[in-house]
Amino acid sequence: MSQVNLFEIGQIENELKEIEILISSLHHLELKYAYLQKIASIREQLIQSLLFHYNVRTPTTPFTLAQLQQNYNGKNNQPAYIAIDNIVYDLTYEATWGGGTHFGLQAGEDVSHALANCHSQNKEEIISKLMPVGILESPVIP
What is the CATH number of the domain that holds 77? Predict the structure, then answer.
């Protein structure tokens, strides 16, 4: 993607959302999962192209853990965000985090410890595929 056209990216994102809605009605679970994975891959490529093109670094938007738990838990059509090592990532469109959960983990939480325990061998590879959206603020201790 040599020339990034934000209007085209927006159109593609809208089309991906419409396709996801159609796919969610599929009853064949293996096909549904395969299609959602493909869409996630396309979305990841678009995001990575934009980040590279605009030389974007990790966003600095601050989030508290309470904000994540209340507003970004993936429930009731809320976005699904998680924190890993004080960086907040958007998992809203990750098929493996459907409904804001993933193998007993819940979106809106700091999953650093769980990721380190379950994926110590490929943690960095997993993180490199996620979309950073901000930083996790440390709680203020009086």
Answer: 3.10.120.10
Query: 75 lies in a domain?
Result: yes
114 and 70 both lie in a single domain: yes
Domain carrying residue 16? 6-53
Tens digits of per-residue pLDDT, 77-135?
899 999 998 889 999 988 888 888 898 899 999 998 888 888 778 888 888 888 888 88
* Pair 40, 90: CB distance under 8 Å: no
**Which helix (H) or strand (E) covers residue 51, if one does?**
helix 29-53
pTM value is 0.60
> Rounded to the nearest 10 degrees, what angle do helices 29-53 and 6-24 cross at?
170
Q: How many Cβ atoms are within 10 Å of 40's Cβ, its own excluded?
A: 19
Token pair of 109 as six digits: 């939480």
Q: What is the mean pLDDT of the chain?
A: 80
DSSP H or E stretch at residue 6: helix 6-24
